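note to self — DONT lose this again. spent like an hour looking for the file last time. sequence + predicted structure for the chain T wanted, 127 res
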Amino acid sequence: MIWQTIRWQPLRYLAGGAFCALVHNVIVISATQCGIAYPVALILSFGVTTPIGYLIHSAFTFEQARSWIRLQRFMLTAIMGFLGSTLLMVLLCTGLRVPVIVATPVATVLLFVWNFTSARWAILQGR
């Protein structure tokens, strides 16, 4: 039974993560198209997608009850992922002059493994 649950976690993470990635990309790209600077758009997206991600990954991906300590760990790892995403965006957009519409999905894909690993640790730690 436990093996079945663990075996499907990456696929369930992919579904929940893809939803969050879509929301993130829509927010950042739309906001920048409306004239909002990409750093502000990243903060806006973080504020929207992080709570959604925690709820999806707690209930669906890892099938765990929500708790304050899990939320705190999730937020900590999300902040670290946000910093990584921001650094990638600065490198791509400001340094290499890649348009936000291209840089946002690239940064999202590059952070996928970090996001899965950190979400799994945040929600399942101490089980």
